[in-house]
Amino acid sequence: AKPPLTVLVTGAAGMRQIGYALIPLIAKGAMLGPNQPVIIHMLDIEPASQSLNAVKMELIDSAFPLLKGVVATTDVVEACSGVNIAVMVGGFRRKEGMERKDVMSKNVSIYKAQASALEQHAAPDCKVLVVANPANTNALILKEFAPSIPEKNITCLTRLDHNRALGQISQSLDVPVSDVKNVIIWGNHSSTQYPDANHATVTTFSGDESARELIGDDKWLQTEFITTVQERGAAIIKARKLSSALSAASSACDHIRDWVLGTPKGTWVSMGVCSDGSYGVPPGLMYSFPVTCDKGQWSIVQGLKIDEFSREKMDITAKELMEEKTLAYSCLN
Length: 333
Ligand code: NAX
Prior knowledge:
Layout: E1 5-10, H1 18-27, E2 38-43, H2 49-62, E3 67-73, H3 76-80, E4 85-88, H4 100-121, E5 127-130, H5 135-144, E6 154-156, H6 159-173, E7 180-181, E8 184-186, E9 194-196, E10 201-204, E11 207-210, H7 211-215, H8 218-222, H9 224-230, H10 232-240, H11 246-261, E12 269-274, E13 286-294, E14 297-300, H12 308-330
Parallel strand pairs: 1-2, 1-4, 2-3, 4-5, 5-6
Antiparallel strand pairs: 7-10, 8-9, 10-11, 12-13, 13-14
Helix pairs in contact: 1-11, 4-5, 5-12, 6-9
This protein binds ligand NAX.
C-alpha cells in the first residue's frame, strides 16, 4: 500500500461551509485518488475549536477506509507539520460596514503567519492551494513570506469559476458538461475575472468542435455568459443565504487532483499561479491562466490567440490585482 499523504485544511470548522463539505471528499479519495491513503490535519481558531472537534468526531464515525489519521488543532505549527498538500480555506470574512483595507489587513497578517509556519514545518515539496478570499492576493502574500517554498508550489483557486463556465456552456447547448472543455478564467477570483469561451470545444460525433461556433451567439458569450459566471457566487448567496460550499469544495479537489495526477491529454484547466509574464501579464502577480499539468507540475498554455475584446478584459483584471497588491503591501507596515 502507498504511504499516506498529509493534507492540511485551514478554516476546517467553517460549519456547513467549505471545510465541512471538503473534508469528507478528501477522506473519500476525491482529491488524491481512490488508492491514496490520507492523513487530514484541520486547523481553525480558538472560538471554533468545539465545532472543529465535532468535525473530527464525525470523521472518525464515518470510518473512511482511506483515512489513516486526523489531527484537529488550533496550533499552526502542529497543523503544518509534515504537510504534503495545504488547502487554505481559513481567513477573515468582510463584515458589514468594514473597510476593504481592514479586511485586507486581517488576511495579510493571517497569511504572513501561516506562510512562515508552512515554510518551517511542511514537507519541502508541499503544494499549496489558497481558497480564502481575496484568494489571489492571499496567495501572493503567502508566496512572498515563504521564500523557500518554490513559487510554482503556491496557487489559488479559480477552478470553481472555470467549472461554472463549463456548466453555463453545457446548459446553453444542452450537452453533458463532460463533453465541454478548455474554457479559461483569466485573472482575479473576483467580479473582474474574465471567463473566456473563445477556445472552448465540445465533443461531438465528428470530433471536437468550437463551442463558440456551436453556440453561434457572440453577443451572449460577450455579455450574459461572462456576467453569469462572474456573479454566480452572489447568486448562490442570494438563493442559499450562505456562500457556495459543495461546488467550492468539489473544485478544490479538482484543482489538486489535476495538479498532482495530471490533466487529461488535450485538456487544460484554470489555476491561479505566479505570472511569468505570459500573455503580457505582469510577472510575479498571482493570476489565473489556462494550464496543463504533468508529473506534479503545471505549465501555462502558450500561443493562444487573444483578440482585442479579450485583451481589454485581461488587462482590467490584472489592474485590479496590482491595486490589491499595493493595498496588501500598505497593510504590512
Ligand atoms: P467560513 O467563514 O464558514 O469558514 C472560514 C473558517 O476560517 C472559519 O471556521 C474561521 O473560524 C476560520 N479561520 C479564520 N481565521 C483563521 C485562521 N487564522 N486560521 C485558521 N482558520 C481561520 O467560510 P467558507 O464559506 O468556508 O469560505 C472560506 C473562504 O473561501 C472565504 O474566504 C470565502 O470568501 C472563500 N471562497 C473562495 C472561493 C474561491 O473560488 N476561491 C469560492 C468560495 C468561497 O467564497
